[in-house]
Automatic annotation (TrEMBL):
The keyword DNA-binding applies. SUPFAM superfamilies: Periplasmic binding protein-like II, Winged helix' DNA-binding domain. InterPro entries: LysR-type_TF_proteobact-type (IPR058163), LysR_HTH_N (IPR000847), LysR_subst-bd (IPR005119), WH-like_DNA-bd_sf (IPR036388), WH_DNA-bd_sf (IPR036390). Transmembrane segments: none annotated. This is LysR family transcriptional regulator. The keyword Electron transport does not apply. PROSITE patterns: HTH_LYSR. It holds the Pfam family HTH_1. Residues 11-62 form the HTH lysR-type domain. Belongs to the LysR transcriptional regulatory family.
Amino acid sequence: MTTTIAWEYYRSLLAVLKHGSLSGAARALGITQPTVGRHIAALEKELGATLFTRSQQGLLPTEVALALRPHAETMEHTAALMARAASSQGQDVAGTVRIAASEVVGVEVLPTILARLRERHPELVIELVLSNKVQDLLRREADIAVRMLRPRQEQLVARKVGDIELGLHAHADYLARHGTPAGLPDLAQHAIIGYDEASPFVRNAGAAFEGFSRDNFAWRSDSDLAQLALIRAGAGIGVCQAGLAARDPALRRVLPQAFALPMETWVTMHADLRGSLRCRATFDALAEGLRDYVASQALT
């Protein structure tokens, strides 16, 4: 006999796994702590297995609970997708759009573009997922993504907006104190801001430039925002988008002829979303705004 277990039981299970306690799960879900406890107890009864054990550190998940987590997360993604699909019905550009982008693009570039979009379509709700990890559009972790590589999946719609150029930059105060390098070998005499763990793109790019390797960095971070903040603070020389640096009169391009990295930039979404007015309007606004941003590099 097949047992049908209510989705809210798995929803409570996932919340307890994420927050480590019944009270934390209840706050996240907007329900009472006893309700979460009843859901967990009912799920344990249906499954015939213990899901959590109590300890001084809180509720500890059993192997059964950990094995159920990826399936509960899939259910959560599906529920969110259904809610977004329902909100997109109608003749107006309205509802929720989930956009994935890198940290620096999401913080430094997209806000102006998206603010203009919402002025035109005030019924839109924007969710920004900022991470340097590539979100899976096929699993609908996001509706639309801004990516720095060409998508290969046939199920995705992709539009290239141009190449964002990366270059070495430093604050004018840093260069006044330490001088401006005349060539790549001179970087050995400077405080270089770089990565901690190299991505495939960074490894390939760094191999082309002598002296630009982890062992030579005075500052290491995998956060693009942290690296940009260090450059702006005058901590050293680091890699920055040329378009961003051009906005700050205190930043100077260093060795532009010797160090320049173009990054292909694409706006992508699942092909199934082409009929969604909210997604199509957002996709077009991102493509147009990012094309303008890429074009601004020509003025630097």
